[in-house]
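Ticket #4471: structure export looks truncated?
Reporter: QA, pipeline team
Priority: medium

Steps to reproduce: submit the single chain below to the structure queue and open the exported record.
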Amino acid sequence: MQLPIGSHPCEAQECRECNMLRRLVKTGLAGALEWTGANALIGSLTAQNLPLVIGYHAVVEDTAAHRGRSIPPNLISLKMLERHLDWLGRRYRFISLDELGARLEGGEPFEKPTVAITFDDGYAGVYHHAFPLLRRKGIPAGLFVVTDLIGTTRLSIYDKLYLLLTSAFSTEKANPGDVARLCTGLGLSLPASNKKNAFLCDPFLTMRVLFTAFPQKELNRVIDALEEVVRIDESSFQELHPLSWDMVSEMYRVGMTIGSHTKTHALLTNESWQRVSRETMESRLALERKLGARITHFAYPDGRFNAVVVRLVAEAGYRYGYTTCLRRDSAHPRLTIPRKFLWEKSCVDALGRFSSSIMSCHAHWIFDMLATCEHNHTWPGSDPGDASTSSEPTGEGPGELTAPTSSTEADVVPHALNL
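Actual output as written to the record:
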């Protein structure tokens, strides 16, 4: 494994030792909690007795074959996915997103533990690998797609950024410090917490900092600047290509719930409210036009939301929204349904084996109880109540624009145990 440029071998060895220690602690804790039954008790408090919703991204035949070509935490192999589904099937009843939404809306209790399966971003691998497995096992699932990518060979914006950084770092055409200087040269200011350490890490962490720091318009400027140094052939990364409309239509016809994941996978909390409205409304209309069906389910890119974004999602015509944390919007609880995301190594022990104990802890949100939510759930712009006096938009950043005044801004409240 190649070291990130600028790192020292001793630092890499120390990092590996720390990771091993964390895996050992995680394995031991998970085993103790499952053995005592404490995981189920804590989970009943943490997840507010909500049905379990599991999320995945790209499904591949073998994750090892994609090392260096895909973002590792986005991948799960077909074999590991089947292990997850079999574990869940022995303990939960699988339900569709439509049934989940209808029960929540009608206030119907869930007599038995229930789970819904979802896939984000619309990778073609879901059709090629997960879809046949789900059909064979009779498991319903939901699929959230980025509508502007469907039917193309373009990569998602974060995949492209990651691959550019990986290529630049590995060929020494750029190093992490160069990326920081590139941002400065473009007039882009990083969050203060990231200015010193963000670019001393690997391509994935660097991508995460950039992807979550800037509106998509500015992120594209970073990508354009990187492409002056190194280029990638997007058509050669077939495992990252999106679904075709025919694939989406086929999965919909046999019962998979299709939902929106915006037009372009923009992080909505980084964008203006006008951009949020376009991303949510136009993606819904595109899906309804292609599928001839009403689209009511929405997944927030990267799980990012705040009260203004949630209200705009409601105004765009969605009834159910899915996040990646336990925070809820008190005014729109059905538009902030928590999801637990898993990948290839989420549920493996210190020896790399699938662990029922760790899977159980994830299913009961145990590890989330021990950490604070990394997302900022506050609206960074002007008070939404001032929108009636706002001037014409001056840009794409949320700090420059105000939000509509169709309803009172709801408080986004954390669950008591999500400290």
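Status: closed, not a bug. The export was complete when the record was re-opened. Leaving a note from the reviewer for reference: Residues 9-36 form the longest helix (28 residues).
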